[in-house]
């Protein structure tokens, strides 16, 4: 896939050190694919791809090598570690974790909604990605989505929403 490339490296060797900063560099209402290459590491951030930034391809270094981790809970629409709103989004070889309930720590973090990923746009695809949480792990809000060789880990309503998705 030919595309403009932005590199993310937590040690400072890329164009940005955070995934969100790379997404912020994508022009609004972009009509060409932008590849965001994400180096190995644990990225402790909440990521939002807003509705006006379609055609983004996120490429991690591996499901067990590139992780996005956030610790939020209660509000379903604001607790997600990864929020994707626009159409035409692809993610490959990375894991999204909401660490609030994972692992469950008894009374220190009582069971609550803690979304790992919220996918709302049409024509989104995920290849070799991980989604980890306990309650409401993957919110497949709406649209058509494709998940290939993905791991979705949770305990209560771990996949929910009104999206039309294929899981292979």
Task: Give a verbal description of the structure.
The chain is mainly beta and 168 residues long. It has one domain: Single-stranded right-handed beta-helix, Pectin lyase-like (Pectate Lyase C-like, 3 Solenoid), CATH 2.160.20.10. The protein is 4% helix and 38% strand. The strands form three sheets. A seven-stranded parallel β-sheet has the order 1-2-5-8-11-14-17, covered by helices on one side. Strands 3-6-9-12-15 form a five-stranded parallel β-sheet, with no helix packed on it. The chain has a five-stranded parallel β-sheet with strand order 4-7-10-13-16. Strand 1, helix 1 and strand 2 form a beta-alpha-beta unit. The chain is globular and about 45 Å long.
Portion in beta strands: 35-45%
Give the domain tally: 1
Order of helices and strands: EHEEEEEEEEEEEEEEEE
CATH architecture: 3 Solenoid
Topology summary:
Blueprint: E1 4-8, H1 19-25, E2 34-38, E3 41-44, E4 47-49, E5 56-59, E6 66-70, E7 82-84, E8 89-92, E9 95-98, E10 117-119, E11 124-127, E12 130-132, E13 138-140, E14 144-148, E15 151-153, E16 159-160, E17 164-167
Parallel strand pairs: 1-2, 2-5, 3-6, 4-7, 5-8, 6-9, 7-10, 8-11, 9-12, 10-13, 11-14, 12-15, 13-16, 14-17
């Amino acid at each position: 896939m030919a595309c403009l490339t932005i590199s993310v490296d937590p040690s400072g060797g890329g164009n940005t050190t955070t995934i969100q900063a790379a997404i912020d560099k994508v022009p609004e209402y972009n009509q060409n694919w932008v590849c965001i290459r994400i180096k190995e590491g644990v990225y402790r951030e909440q990521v939002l791809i807003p509705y006006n930034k379609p055609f983004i391809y996120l490429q991690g270094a591996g499901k067990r090598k590139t992780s996005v981790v956030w610790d939020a809970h209660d509000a379903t629409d604001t607790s997600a570690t990864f929020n994707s709103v626009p159409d035409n989004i692809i993610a490959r070889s990375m894991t999204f974790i909401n660490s609030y309930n994972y692992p469950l720590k008894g009374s220190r973090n009582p069971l609550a909604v803690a979304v790992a990923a919220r996918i709302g746009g049409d024509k989104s695809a995920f290849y070799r990605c991980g989604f980890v949480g306990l309650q409401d792990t993957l919110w497949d809000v709406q649209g058509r989505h494709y998940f290939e060789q993905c791991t979705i880990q949770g305990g209560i309503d771990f996949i929910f929403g009104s999206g039309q998705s294929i899981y292979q």
